[in-house]
Description:
Blueprint: H1 8-16, H2 34-39, H3 65-75, E1 87-90, H4 93-104, E2 110-115, H5 119-126, E3 131-136, E4 138-140, E5 143-145, H6 148-154, E6 159-165, H7 187-193, E7 220-224, E8 261-266, E9 279-282, H8 286-296, H9 305-315, H10 320-345, E10 354-356, E11 367-369, H11 377-385
Parallel strand pairs: 2-3, 2-6, 6-7, 7-8
Antiparallel strand pairs: 1-9, 4-5, 8-9, 10-11
Helix pairs in contact: 3-9, 4-5, 4-8
Amino acid sequence: MKDIPEFNLNRWSQRRQHEIKIPLHGSAVRPLSLAELQILAPDASLSSPVDHQLVLAYSKAQGSLKLRERIAEIHSGSAVKLTADNVIITPGSILANYLALAILAGPGDHVICQYPTFTQLWAIPKFQGVEVSLWKLKPGDNGWEASLDELKGLVRENTKAIIIKCVITLHPGATHPSSFILMMINNTTATQTTPPAPSSPPPPSSPSCPSPRSTTPHHALLRRGLCPALPRPSPSPSSTTPVPVATPTPPSIVSLPYPHTLATGSVSKAIGLPGIRIGWVISPSTAVLNRIMTARDYTTISVSLLDEGVAAFALAPGVLPALLARNLAICGRSIALLQAWVDGHSKGTGSGRVAWVPPQGAGTAFVRVFEKGGRGGRWMRRCLRRGW
């Protein structure tokens, strides 16, 4: 990938993120301190996110057993029970994404990617010589809308993956502005969208999500974000505008009865802990996980034991519901503030200078700024001067 261009979105935010007081560009819920996190435990006096007796050695290659067990539990469903062996811990989800994209397809292959989305998800395959088709979402009366018929029409014989970013949420796990609640991802339509597995298992040299050498067509569904199959947290009384949620709660993509699936996630966005670099890859396919570990060996020795300990504390059954309720309340208040601002400047009610598609199941959104003769540059510079 010697000719890959700059990641403009990341570079822009990296240059400016420390100049501002209100990070409007961010997609993570307001981060917690360790003290704030500890208070969320049922018995704060007996619990701590940090084990002060911890020996600061290397972690296990695949990641902490306790953390992997909890992530597997969160992603499991009634049809598929996952274990710690199905999980690989990575330093953040951006590396989890990179590893998955690196092993799923190569030159001569084809992938389908939801769009608009995080640039990494379509750019990495493209600059590895993979042909990429964009499954474009369209803003409509009901939010960002997707056509299942259009998706089916994009599938080819050499399609190796359908890449979907945070499409189903119970909480602000959908951290991209085009995130939406997509009820089509269920047992029935997932089977319709992806071809059935071959009648006999592929040979060892042709794993279930094959390498570019394989001629057997398989489709993997890649989804980024924390699994939504969690108990619904009670809404906070201080949240006047609750984040829309899916009812009934859709399952994690890796809990569907289709073996060629893979999901990545992290504690950065919905959980609000981007300062600990913890992400993961989870899949029911042993062959896929073996290839992920092979690729990971070239990028990562281990993940920080301190980070793993804090992540395990945050995801614990006694802490996670309270943490999600706190984050939902923050998102609800923030969405209400943004809605009021957009209403005051949109067509019909204000100056007509801005428009947006309100988020569904997410805490972020695209706000379009109509600037005469420009591309929003003057407006962005004005925001920066004000510390936004």
